[in-house]
Amino acid sequence: MKVKSRQDKIIALVRKHEQLTIEELSSSLASSKETIRRDVAELAKMGNVQKIHGGIMLPNTYADGSFRSRMSTQASAKSIIANTAINLFNQSETLFIVTGSTTLYFAEQLYKLSNLTIVTNSGEIAKASSNKPSSNRIFLLGGEYNTSNNQTIGTMVASQCRSFRAHHTILTIGALDEVSGAMQYSIDEAQIAAAMIDRSEKVTVLVDSSKFGKLASFEICPLSKIDRIICEELPRGSLKSALEHNGVEIILAT
After folding, report:
1. Residue 131 neighbours by CB under 8 Å, 6+ apart
2. DSSP β-bridge partners for residue 168
3. First to last CA, the chain
4. Residues in the chain with pLDDT < 50?
5. Is residue 106 within 8 Å of 85, Cβ to Cβ?
6. Spatial distance between the Cα atoms of 251 and 66, rounded to a whole number of angstroms
7. Which residues are paired to 151 by β-bridges?
8. Are 142 and 153 in contact (CB under 8 A)?
9. Distance in angstroms (rounded) separating the CA atoms of residues 250 and 243
10. Pick from 45, 61, 69, 80: most CB atoms within 10 A?
């Protein structure tokens, strides 16, 4: 197994289980303990994991309950979606990236591209985007600070979006259906996502299949505003028909 692939699997495992021993990682990945220790040391240096005696755990930045829980939910699907998504963007583009666990997985892959301009309201995404050397520029939008998700929220954030023009907005969402389109459970997150969409040429939604056909409280945008969705399992029935009717490209993550 290649080093990068093995390290990605270590990150996915610790997000799923929150804490693992070196022995458990060695067994799960069919790699020697020495190899795992080297990987863990490198990942800890980049802030992706936290070393503890005999093993690893989620880093302290994920310690707050709600975000930590979101990072470990559907971890495998989110990792696959992020790894597929990174290949769909080009060097020198400007990207709006909203706060979210799936978009954080995506942000960890951005070092593979160069000369990007990354605009986000997430402290976690800003940090992940700068964990490895790259020529990318990162802008963190200012506003009211929300500690649970390490993000900025409110009208100041939405207002600052108007200072940028972006090639893409990359969304993670709470729900997706054929009636309301993309939805979120937080009104602040929904409003910021909508502000980013208004200043972008294209909209990409990173969404795992657990969100299909669900309902959330606040609309982000209708299906007609979405250019493509990336998911680990194809939508079915009326949602699939509605996406196709609105010209949304459906990309299966592999």
Report:
1. 46, 47, 48, 108, 111
2. 95, 202
3. 17
4. 62-65
5. yes
6. 28
7. 122, 146
8. no
9. 8
10. 80
User: Domain spanning 3-58: which CATH class is it, in words?
Assistant: mainly alpha
Instruction: Residue 125: name the closest of 221, 224, 196 by CA.
Output: 196
Concatenated DSSP letters of 172-192:
E-SEEETTTEEEES-HHHHHH
pLDDT of residue 91: 94
Structure tokens at 81: 């979606």
C-beta of residue 158 within 8 angstroms of C-beta of residue 142: no
Cβ contact 44:50 at 8 Å: yes
Q: At what angle do helices 65-72 and 3-17 cross, to 10 degrees?
A: 130
pLDDT of amino acid 73: 64
Query: Rounded CA gap, 84 and 250, in Å?
Result: 12
d(CA 252, CA 94): 24
- At residue 63, the pLDDT reads 41
Structure tokens given for 165: 């023009």
- pLDDT, position 207: 96
Long-range contacts: 245-248, Cβ < 8 Å, 24+? 246/222, 248/223
Residue type, 2: K
150: left (phi over 0), alpha (psi -120 to 50) or beta: left
Could you please state the CATH topology (level 3) that the domain comprising 68-252 is classified under: Rossmann fold (3.40.50)
Q: What residues does each domain of the chain span?
A: 3-58, 68-252
As a whole number of angstroms, the distance between CA 188 and CA 87 comes to 29
- The first and second tokens of residue 173, run together, are 């969402």
95 closest CA partner among 74, 131, 75, 121: 121
Residue located via tokens 């995404």: 125
